[in-house]
Design brief:
Cyt_P450_sf, alpha+beta, Cytochrome P450, 3-stranded antiparallel β-sheet, Cytochrome p450, binds protoporphyrin IX containing FE, globular
């Protein structure tokens, strides 16, 4: 990091963003931006210019500002720069009509319809299955005394969970896991790999949805999320075939890398804070669940999976935090910076697993607030609690400096998390 925060007579030059050091630890740069350039124009690695919003109050306001559209048609840039929700390949596969790319009234209609199928009750009923999946994955490495918690645990858990919830037959789930893995591995890499994987997923989903639609109402028909989406209606309106495909796609991907990173970043933070982790383990051993829920919210605030909210575009000239933004300019709300704002959080750089006043923005805010938050909480809490209970002396197997972060724009997460424990 080229910045010197203590330069006499001034703040010094703006920190260099999007370097390897930044990917490893972006928080010093965000502290500088919050203080000296809270709404900061920068050139992204893709060459696109965008505004970064880093203060909590500005971020919260921007997330709920109807003048900031999610629809890439409002972007001034050439077509190649459009369609960036953080979900790779969606554009080439014709999957753009989903919640993260649309505004009211279309967004209101789709969100109301999906809410009818993706209910808190459905998620709560799914709890035993998430526990079973978690235990099965841990069984795979528990006797070995070592594991890579990203590849063997955090990566497969959310994809199997969402496949189950959607109603993907068990024999097809490994294919989806592999295609989804290609998307993440190739993210930012060769376009061909991503585009191929997304096309396969699209084709698979379209066929599965078609089969479920044919089968709807038949005796023994599945009561899964896809069938729920096909059935969902509001004032006689249904989701079109394409809308169901795009909805399943966004459910798969909005909940995939995010949950991997919640589990990965969360476990890493716990291993870096042994005293707090020990206290959490004691409360788990005593059968208390309250401290677990509070702890997972703090892990989200402290080092959350979504570094920046997905793209927004100014539909008219507007002002954020005193800075004028021109119509057509892209705006990225930096959740990771907002959630460490000392104006909002007491000692924000400190991990406090018992933190009470914790209205973090890790799941966003406003009409695009994370639809999957109840599922993410269920998976995050089950994964972390089960691992700490079953492998109580879990420890990092490499030096902190040897860990590699992915360095994408929207997401923040580890490539691998090698650990050791007593089998
Ligand atoms: C939206 C975070 C897991 C589905 C969002 C947004 C954030 C977020 C920040 C708002 C994006 C924006 O305003 O630009 C997270 C985190 C997760 C997680 C941190 C895990 C820890 C999930 C899961 C699912 C899901 C498991 C579903 C299976 C969605 C959907 C949206 C969304 C569909 C779009 C909602 C809309 O535009 O109305 N999520 N998410 N997420 N999330 Fe999540």
């Amino acid at each position: 990091m080229s910045v010197n925060l203590h330069t006499p007579g001034g703040p010094g030059p703006a920190p260099e963003l999007f370097t390897w050091e930044f990917a490893t630890d972006p928080y010093p740069a965000y502290a500088w931006l919050r203080q000296h350039a809270p709404v900061h124009r920068t050139t992204l690695p893709s060459g696109v210019d965008a505004w970064l919003v880093t203060r909590y109050a500005d971020a919260r306001q921007a997330l709920a500002d109807a003048r900031l559209s999610k629809n890439p048609v409002h972007h001034d840039e050439p077509a190649h720069a459009r369609g960036k929700t953080g979900i790779p390949g969606e554009r080439s596969a014709g999957l753009m009509t989903h919640l993260l790319n649309i505004d009211p009234p279309d967004h209101t209609r789709l969100r109301r319809l999906v809410a009818k199928a993706f209910t808190p009750r459905r998620v709560a009923a799914f709890e035993p299955r998430v526990q079973e999946l978690t235990d099965r994955l841990i069984d795979g490495f528990a006797a070995r005394g070592s594991a890579d918690l990203i590849h063997e645990f955090a990566f497969p858990l959310p994809i199997y969970a969402i496949c189950d919830l959607l109603g993907v037959p068990p024999e097809d789930q490994d294919d989806l896991r592999d295609w989804a893995g290609m998307m993440i591995r190739h993210g930012g890499g060769p376009r061909g790999g991503v585009a191929r994987a997304v096309k396969r997923i699209r084709g698979y989903l379209a066929e599965l949805i078609h089969r479920k639609r044919e089968n709807l109402g038949a005796e023994g028909a599945d009561d899964d999320l896809i069938s729920g989406l096909i059935r969902a209606s509001d004032h006689g309106e249904h989701l079109t075939e394409n809308e169901v495909v795009a909805m399943c796609f966004v459910l798969l991907f909005a909940g995939f890398e995010t949950t991997i990173n919640l589990v990965g970043n969360g476990l890493y933070a716990l291993m870096c804070h042994p005293e707090q982790r020990a206290r959490l383990q004691e409360s788990l051993a005593a059968g208390e669940t309250g401290p677990l829920a509070t702890a997972v919210e703090e892990l989200l605030r402290y080092d959350g999976p979504v570094e920046m909210a997905t793209w927004r575009y100014a539909t008219e000239t507007l002002t954020i935090g005193g800075q004028e933004i021109a119509a057509g300019d892209p705006v990225l709300v930096v959740l990771a910076a907002a959630d460490r704002d000392p104006e909002r959080f007491d000692q924000p750089e400190v991990l406090d697993l018992a933190r009470r006043d914790n209205q973090h923005l890790g799941y966003g805010h406003g009409i695009h607030y994370c639809l999957g938050a109840p599922l993410a909480r269920l998976e995050g809490q089950t994964a972390i609690a089960t691992l700490l209970r079953r492998l109580p002396d879990l420890r990092l197997a490499v030096d902190h400096h040897d860990l590699r972060w992915r360095g994408g724009l929207i997401m923040r997460g580890l490539r691998t998390l090698p650990v050791e424990f007593t089998p």
